[in-house]
Amino acid sequence: MLVELEQFGAEQPPIILSGKKKTRQTKNVASVPVIDVQSNNFKELWPALVVAIKTSSFIALDTELSGLGNRKSLLAECIEDRYKAICHAARSRSIISLGIACYKKLDHKPPDSYLVQVYNLTLLCSEEYIIEPQSVQFLVQHGFDFNKQYSNGIPYCKGNNKGGSDDRGVHIRALFTELLRARKPLVLHNGLIDMAFLYQSFYAHLPERLATFTADLSEMFPAGVYDTKYVTEFELRLTASYLEYAYKKCKLENSRCVTSGSPGPHIHIEFCQYVGHLSTYIDYRVCPAVPTIEGQTDICQRFSAFGWCPNGTKCPLSHDTDLIILQDEKCKEDKRKKRKRRREKKGGLDTAEDCSILDGVPQNKIPNMEVDKEEAAGDQQETHEKSCSEGVPQMGTDQIDEGQSMKSDDEENGASEDKTDTRVSATTAKSAEGSSGEGTDVHSAEADVQTKKKADAGSHRAGFDAYMTGYIFAYSCTLAKEEAGVGGIDRELEQSWLPTCINRIYLSGKAAPLNVVKSTFSKSSKAHIQKMEMVWREKI
Fold first, then answer.
1. Three-class DSSP category at 319
2. d(CA 154, CA 233)
3. What spans are recorded as compositionally biased (Basic and acidic residues) (predicted)?
């Protein structure tokens, strides 16, 4: 297999060669090709992986972890105590899978067109580490192959460099060094835990103080760190902000814009088509079309709000995120109409506030949203009445999801679990035509059949999660650019992507994010200074 590396840096999208056959890029909207990287093909795929990182516009990462430890400590009121708990987890647990999604903005294409390459790296820590039973159970339920990990996982050592060279050779720490040298924007979802694990696993021993850690990060990623959990909560202000919900909501809105032909903001996604020997490394992840709700469907209220349910796969209610989104949209529209009728009865003529951003928002999220107090009070009362009437438990202190093995997308579950079946009846709603599309091209039926043979509809895999994270970010950037208008502001947005979200990391249960900055009262760690001299080959 050959990889035509010079194509990656050219104006045209990359072309992957396999033997004598040259493949073409495709806008396969039905599934996402994820390259499965293990110890037996890591060296072979290394050149393509490094070039994809270097030529990308931004990089999205996601991890699967062997555990997190004490969940309550991870949500301590004091952020410094929370950081200490995360450090303990990162030092005693390990990354078992790393997802990398490289998004490259294409020139001479429709605006906001991206070529995306997705990699899923199976890792195996060479040191002793803790793996939690809940983590094993969750990962197995979502298709993780522990036999493959222990037989073909890419080995690595944690903490400070242990005699090897982090900037030479073909190993995971050298790959992380290439990521730093690329100086690309880094995108994560609920990224504080991810960054701590990445730092401890592939970079150096975590510093003891949070201020030192953020100072190090600000120099490691000069192009900025973006958290799509923060973007979803405080910029897009979606009803829910867990990863799968946010991705499918953005994808649905993007598809509606494309299929309707409206001039509104939308993105185009393209992938490489892999053939020959390389195709054996591809794991296709299905992006199913959004269905139409017909009749009544019982949806799990807890999963609807937080993307997590204590009953897991045994829950008798629906965990279909697509149906949840359609239900939320219908509830939002019904509440808007109800509010409008109420105002008309009172003789009110002001319709500017008909649409409230609080429609359908879980009650525990309302305090974190900047809204008009009078309108928020009305929505809170209505939400409370709805919750009580349907038997929905009132959400209290945010809590790390105990049902997930890696860091939770939605660290927002109540401290007490009410395991009584909570039903929400979703009435008929209509989805947009062609809602499965992410671009304008439709793949041939024959190609779809071939792809379907290896396609997997399961989510919660590091590679596909990284792709979803990058998609949310790309769509949010397009939306922000449209709202700002075209001109000088557009150029500033293009340079900094999302200026209002740069270096702001979501903190569960907090109204303010963690700012990734180096303050005048904090210093970089000694290990970081030594590492950066190696990365940039100059003193800092």
1. coil
2. 35
3. 370-388, 440-459
Contacts 24+ apart (CB under 8 A), 354-363: 357/237, 358/383, 359/239, 359/331, 359/332, 359/335, 360/239, 360/328, 360/331, 360/332, 360/335, 361/239, 362/239, 362/240, 362/305, 362/306, 362/395, 362/412, 363/387, 363/394, 363/395
The number of beta carbons lying within 10 Å of the beta carbon of residue 495 is 9
**What is the per-residue pLDDT across 76-128, written as a single tens digit (0 to 9) for each?**
999 999 999 999 999 999 999 999 999 999 988 888 999 999 999 999 999 99
Amino acid at 512: A
**Are 27 and 440 spatial neighbours (Cβ–Cβ below 8 Å)?**
yes
Measured distance CA(34)–CA(180) in Å, rounded? 22
Distance CA 236, CA 357 (A): 10
Neighbours of 304 (CB within 10 A): 28
Q: What is the rounded distance in angstroms from the CA atom of residue 186 to the CA atom of residue 61?
A: 7
User: Alpha carbon 523 to chain centroid distance?
Assistant: 30
Three-class secondary structure of residue 59 per DSSP? strand
List pLDDT tens digits, range 54-82. Answer: 999 999 999 999 999 988 999 999 999 99
In the structure encoding, which two tokens stand for residue 275, read together?
Answer: 């053939």
pTM for this model (two decimals): 0.75
Partnered with residue 365 across adjacent β-strands are none
Task: Provide the CA 388 distance to its chain's centre, in angstroms.
Answer: 32
